[in-house]
Amino acid sequence: MPPRNRPATPASILAAAADHIERVGLYQGEHLWKPGQMGDDAPCTVLHAWDQGVRAVKPHWSVGGEPWDLFARALWGSLEAVSNHINGRPVPPVRWRELGLCENAYRRTMLWCWGDEPGRTAREAAAAFRAAAELRRSDRDHAVGS
Question: Cβ–Cβ contacts within 10 Å for residue 78, how many?
Answer without folding.
Answer: 28
